[in-house]
Amino acid sequence: MNEQALDFKAWTNDMQARMELALDAHLPTATISPMRLHEAMRYATLGGGKRVRALLAYAAGEFCGAELEKIDIPAASVEIIHAFSLVHDDLPCMDDDDLRRGKPTTHKQYGDALALLVGDALQSLAFQLISQEKLLKSATQKLQMLHILALASGSRGMAGGQAIDIESIGIPLTRAELEHMHIQKTGALIRAAALLGAYSADDPEEEKVKAVDHFAKAIGLAFQVVDDILDAEADTQTLGKTAGKDKLNNKSTYVTILGLSAAKQLASELHANAMAALSFYGREADLLRHLANFITQRSF
C-alpha cells in the first residue's frame, strides 16, 4: 500500500471515529424517557456502516475550506437521515429484511411499531441538530442546509425514489427509468452530504461548490451501480445484509438490465465523470478523489 493510500486510510479511520463520537454525543441517551425508543435509536445508528455520507461531507468541507468542527453536525445529520431510511426500508411493509450491518434489523430487535417510531424520531433529530447548531452562526447557512436535506429526504428525493422502487417490483424498467429512481433513492442523499459539507465553509467558492455538486451526482449513481453488482456477486456475511435480495424480489437492477460486465463498465465511466469534475484542482481535491476510488472499488 503506497503512502497516499495509507494516509487516506488513516484519514478515513479518523473521520469514522469522529462521526461515531458526534453521533453518540447527539443521540438521546437510553437513560432518558422514553428509554426504549432512545435505546433503539442508538441501536439503529451507532456501531456500524462505512459512514460514506459523513466522509463525503468531511472531504467536501475540507475542499471548500470548512473547519472540521463546523462539518460535524451537518455530517451527523445526513448519517441520521440515512439510518432512519434503513430502519424504514427494512420493515416488513417495505423490503422486509432481517439483517443490517451484520446484526438484526431494528424491527427484528424492537418490533415493527417501535422501529417505525425510531425512523420518525431520527428524521426529526437530523433537522433539530442543524437548526440549533451554534457553530453555524449564519441563519442563511442553516436555512440552506435545512433546505438541501429536506429536498434530498422527501418526495423529490429519497422517499420518492423508494416509492418508485416499491411500485416497480416485478416490472421491468428501462435504464433511464432505473437511473431516475436511483438519482432520487440513493443519489439525492449522497449529493446532499457533499453539499452540506461544502456549505459548512463560511464563504465557499462558487466554482468549488459546483465541482462538488458535479462530483457527487456522478459518484452517487456509481454507488448504486456498485451496490447492484455486490448484491449479485457478494455473500450475506460479506455484505452484512441479505445478499441476492433484489433478484429474489424480482427488482430491476443495473446488473439485470445491462449484465454484470456492462454494469462494471458503467461504474468505471461514472467514476471517470466524478474525477473529471475535479480536474481543475490539485491536491486539495485528493480526499474526494480517494473517496471516489473507495466507493467504486469497495467489496462490501
Which key features would you list for this structure?
15 helices, single chain, 300 residues, Farnesyl Diphosphate Synthase, mainly alpha
Write the layout of secondary structure elements.
Layout: H1 3-26, H2 35-45, H3 52-63, H4 68-89, E1 99-100, E2 103-104, H5 106-110, H6 112-132, H7 139-153, H8 158-167, H9 175-198, H10 206-233, H11 236-239, H12 245-248, H13 254-258, H14 260-276, H15 286-297
Antiparallel strand pairs: 1-2
Care to give the gist of this entry?
With 300 residues, the chain is mainly alpha-helical. 71% of the residues lie in helices and 1% in strands.
Which superfamily, in CATH terms, is the homologous superfamily?
Farnesyl Diphosphate Synthase
User: How would you state the average pLDDT, rounded?
Assistant: 93
Annotated CATH architecture: Orthogonal Bundle
Q: So what's the overall shape?
A: globular
Largest beta-sheet details: 2 strands, antiparallel
Strand order of the largest sheet: 1-2
What's the number of helices? 15
Q: Which blocks of ≥5 consecutive residues have pLDDT under 50? A: none
Structural class: mainly alpha
Number of domains: 1
DSSP strand content: under 5%
Structural summary, described in words:
With 300 residues, the chain is an all-alpha fold. The protein has a single domain, classed as Farnesyl Diphosphate Synthase (Orthogonal Bundle), CATH 1.10.600. It has helices at residues 3-26, 35-45, 52-63, 68-89, 106-110, 112-132, 139-153, 158-167, 175-198, 206-233, 236-239, 245-248, 254-258, 260-276, 286-297; strands at 99-100, 103-104. The chain has a two-stranded antiparallel ribbon with strand order 1-2. Helix 10 runs antiparallel to helix 14 (260-276) and helix 10 runs parallel beside helix 15. The model has no long low-confidence stretch (mean pLDDT 93).
